[in-house]
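User: Could you go from structure to sequence for me? I need the amino acid at each position, not a summary. Structure tokens:
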């Protein structure tokens, strides 16, 4: 009688190879959650995020019908007076206060944390032109490179508003408002103290600050 080879058993505990973290790399910086934003067009040359359509509303005949009862009907008592509505803040006032998000990071890691925040914002559907990145210490390499061609073409890119723009705290007074402002606190205590209030005023919906929490709270207030 021929022997039937046994099928190899696959144990549920078997796992694939583990990927070891890169040597010398510190723990990953917490990634921010994108704040409120208006609907934005997809990034040029990049498909927009998949957004499932809302299911169609059920037909009225699917809803449970009310059953009328003629036996033992109870007469309704006197209705209570409607509660007074709680006054809410005007929409213009609520829209003028951006959400503030803190990403703890050292001065050396603040720029990397800001880059990760920008990547997540773009992946979530933010248009590149909605994001402004500010450094309080050394400028971003992109800003250094673009300024080498002169200030006029550098600021022309800012005015075009079709890509992420990088600037430093010293030039923040010239930068305009954008829905999202990301600040990398990568040095300069005096520059940080001057830049954070200005950055808050430039942020339309969301301000993300990457840096030392104690230093940031001392400028923007505890509880940030």
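Assistant: Here is the amino acid at each position, in order:
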């Amino acid at each position: 009688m021929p022997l039937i080879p046994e099928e190899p058993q696959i144990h549920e505990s078997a796992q694939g190879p583990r990927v070891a973290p890169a040597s010398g790399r510190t723990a990953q910086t917490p990634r921010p959650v994108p704040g409120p934003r208006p609907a934005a067009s997809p990034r040029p040359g990049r498909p927009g995020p998949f957004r499932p359509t809302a299911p169609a509303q059920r037909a009225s005949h699917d809803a449970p019908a009310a059953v009328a009862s003629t036996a033992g009907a109870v007469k309704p008592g006197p209705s209570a007076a409607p509660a007074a509505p709680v006054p809410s803040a005007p929409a213009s006032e609520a829209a003028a206060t951006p959400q503030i998000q803190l990403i703890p990071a050292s001065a050396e890691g603040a720029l990397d944390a800001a880059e990760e925040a920008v990547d997540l914002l773009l992946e979530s559907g933010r248009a590149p032109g909605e994001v402004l990145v500010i450094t309080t210490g050394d400028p971003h390499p992109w800003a250094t490179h673009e300024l080498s061609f002169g200030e006029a073409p550098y600021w022309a890119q800012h005015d075009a508003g079709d890509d992420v723009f990088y600037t430093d705290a010293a030039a923040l007074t010239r930068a305009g408002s954008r829905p999202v402002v990301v600040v990398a606190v990568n040095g300069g205590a005096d520059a940080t103290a001057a830049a954070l209030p200005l950055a808050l005023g430039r942020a339309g919906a969301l301000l993300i600050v990457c840096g030392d929490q104690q230093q940031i709270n001392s400028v923007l207030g505890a509880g940030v």
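One structural detail worth keeping in mind: Residues 110-123 form the longest helix (14 residues).
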